Amino acid sequence: MSNVDVLADLQARGLVQDCTDADGLTSRLAEGPITLYFGCDPTASSLHVGNLLGLLVLRRFQQAGHRPIALAGGATGMVGDPSGRSEERNLLDDETLSANVAGIKEQIARVVGADVDLVDNRDWTADVRLLDFLRDVGKFVTVNTMLGRESVRNRLASEHGISYTEFSYMLLQAHDYLLLERDRGCQLQIGGSDQWGNMVGGVDLIRRVSGRPAWALCWPLLTAPDGTKLGKTTGARIWLDPERTSPYQFFQHWMQTDDRQVRQFLAQFTLMALDEIDEVLAEHESDPAQRVAQRRLAHEVTTLVHGPEQAEAAAEASQILFGAPVRGASIEALTAVAAEVPVMTVTRAEIDTGMDVSDLLSGVGLAASKGEARRALAQGGVYVNGERVEQGSVVTDSDLLYDRYVVLRKGKRTFGLVDVA
Predict the structure, then answer these.
(1) What is the pLDDT of residues 320-331, one digit of tens each?
(2) pTM to 2 decimal places
């Protein structure tokens, strides 16, 4: 992809809502590589799928030969961004922010690439004196301009109002852009449309202080089919940290994508070419019940975030939990299943002597009692490693998968797992 084509590609993917001086940016990209940045505030120990959109835009620019900077906002995270919020965030202490920054830096590197330029705005903000900041930044920004920002207007109109701390957030973000432009030649900031006012403030500050050109580009906010915003603070808690959202749960999130949004998400959350996406959609539309597009989306995004092995394991675990044969499943898939269903740990000695299936059903929680377990067995609704078993059946070491696991199922979708310690 050429330097200029990256903008056309972003537009085709629905990733351009606003751009300051689009013609000027197009001309600048035609001259050669540009340095750009995307910032994430470490308000939690993990990024979420909304942040992923920005990381992938960074990567698209990187693939076109540009120089990406990923900023972890250790300083701005202490203040809290009022954008898109009706009340003030809880302020985090330095120790928590440091741990959060370390976590999200690792996630950024995994998605964008190890060679991405990772910075933390605490490095240049922590020692800035108040009087210097007011002189070097504050005098270039009018209160009228700040009050005109939509995020500020909305908060002023709310019952909670806005604190001076949050009011000053846009100055800190503009200061970040100013220093990145001065020290690293950064000329483009990217972000979601809720950051538009803050980004324009940075462009304006650079123009006023240095007289040099800079640009901002934003994409539309991620929404559900009903138009509601998605994000970690509004109920859609899909994290990039596998400890908070397991690779299987992450995979399932994309599998559940509404048909109305699957093309959008394939275009925006994968690195697939647009013509390849159209081919996948044509196959999907020939038999929507097979969810071909959702399956491809889930696999591509899980690979980007968690790696190919975890993506394969999540896909295979998904098939197991939706009725695919258990025998022949990989150890990674069974381990993924173990993270999602009730698990009963037994000793080697217990399994060697044989354990009644009814005891295992009640022990793992698939039946409230042994009596209920026996009734389920009598009705033919119990399966061991995918095979129906009868009342009185015993599980022994010969049933172990990989000398460790036994998969139990009651009915069509209720699973449990026996793990031999």
Answers:
(1) 999 889 999 999
(2) 0.89
